[in-house]
């Protein structure tokens, strides 16, 4: 009988369970549950557009709802391991028994006591403070995370909590990333000090690196706020890669879910990183996980250099024994959703109209910063821009310009990585947009002048989590053999069209003018030609 692995993918709005055959990656069971709390699982604040929180009760409820459905009719004694991926950085305050403060009556409705979701940008001032202090002191901490600390990350969010909600901060014994707390909860680990912390979150979001002894020093953290310095001792000293065992499914969770008690559970990791695993990542391959935002994941050897402006260069964060590279864009699917809401049109209508336009025909050029810039500029206070509008501009033209803007942002990231000496030989796309929007894939192929391949699985993050479960359960000896057996790409690929490549090269140069003119401090970009150049290009295309 086949051996099976279970992957749990905790996204922004839902959780997905996926059961696969470890021999070939065939999917034999799946279920999705939309979070019940907040607005599609997210708590927001109409007075603060930067706030985004999530209730951890949805994580527990979602586990039982999806696992029971996904394993229905399957031999659970053949499930060799469980893997978990989550959004991040999504830190959660917990008490001394590893229970979320949001589970208590006192804090159940307190947004500051919930998980601080990855796209919460309320701590932009603290992020800048961390960056400036590290630079002033000559600390090495920023070298592995692109040179600038982000408001999306661990320390800035916790520091902001200490300042705006001291009662929450004081009640918390420690803080857990979602990727660490969920496996610990599945295993019934009640002592935060014994929870295995994954290097994925630690390295990319918490400035952890073995070369300086793990997390930033208590002295540095105390210089930011003495309370952070004191918290340092209640966190962790070591972090481990996914695929290692976090423990086994505890009896209580097993009885309620239908899993076998003691089933091995892998250390957790971020969704994008395991999406790359589920897409067959290897040196030279960039995996683009396209969803509400986009993460670009690569792996390299021990000689991988630091890359300015990226979200991290971290040993073991994707595949043990290799260096993980993360970059990305803060809004992609969210940007397309914004356009649909703004124009009161469906994605299908907008997509069909945009597909009838030729490159350059809209006369528009946009920046993809409606939710800030994650890479290269690392600035949450940057905002969106559309140039070239006339009284005849249509919603479909705006929609296409936004797709093109995200592709230009992707090309800028690729060029930054290549400029640092890292090969980008091929691109594999995964996520809902990659599956559903041929227009977007063709635009990316033309803008980047590279074929766009599509991951074989439509559920790559959950598949990557299942790969971790298979490795933790001993079904494969290592990640390389598990990836080779369980992942792949589709036969269909989107190839660049030379005529479109030539037009997009012209548009991209104008995009760089806007990118540097609005995003780079002290720059003196002359942008007086952009509007007229867009009109000239449109006339050239339309005839």
Describe this structure in words.
- The protein is an alpha+beta fold and 543 residues long.
- Helices cover 38% and strands 19% of the residues.
- It is built from 19 helices and 21 strands.
- The chain has helices at residues 56-70, 124-137, 154-164, 166-171, 178-187, 199-205, 218-224, 226-232, 251-257, 271-278, 333-343, 347-355, 395-419, 432-436, 438-448, 460-472, 479-486, 498-519, 530-542, and strands at 4-10, 14-21, 27-34, 43-45, 48-54, 79-86, 91-94, 115-116, 174-177, 245-248, 264-266, 269-270, 285-290, 294-300, 312-315, 323-329, 365-367, 385-387, 426-430, 452-455, 489-494.
- The strands form 6 sheets. It has a 7-stranded mixed sheet with strand order 15-16-14-13-19-20-21, sandwiched between helices. A 5-stranded mixed sheet has the order 3-2-1-6-12. Strands 4-5-8 form a 3-stranded antiparallel sheet, with no helix packed on it.
- Helix 7 packs antiparallel against helix 8 (226-232), helix 12 (347-355) packs across helix 13 (395-419) and helix 15 crosses helix 18 (498-519).
- The longest helix has 25 residues, at 395-419.
- The chain starts with a strand and ends with a helix.
- The model has no long low-confidence stretch (mean pLDDT 95).
